[in-house]
Amino acid sequence: MKEIEVIIDTEEIAEFFYNELTKRGYVPGEDELGELADITFDYLLNKCIIDEDNEDDEFDEFE
InterPro entries of this UniProt entry (predicted)? Predict the structure, then answer.
């Protein structure tokens, strides 16, 4: 199976949830959206759909 690089941005997830929820008549708060985005990210990690890769790790080598 071919490996591809996918970047998951929790801010983008939060925006997606905001748009989808408002279409359905809900008015989510910013805190709730952040929590939903974090939960979604954790779900993807738990299902091994993504691997967490901290971009900061690349810069730790030079410090």
Answer: YozD (IPR025545)
Reported as a single tens digit per residue, the pLDDT across 8-51 is: 899 999 999 999 999 999 999 999 999 999 999 999 999 988 88
Closest CA to 45 of 37, 56, 34, 55: 37
Domain borders along the chain are: 10-47
Three-state DSSP string of 10-58? HHHHHHHHHHHHHHCCCCCCHHHHHHHHHHHHHHHHHCCCCCCCCCHHH
* Alpha-carbon distance values, 15 to 3, 5, 49, 55 (Å): 27, 22, 21, 22
Q: How many residues does the chain have?
A: 63
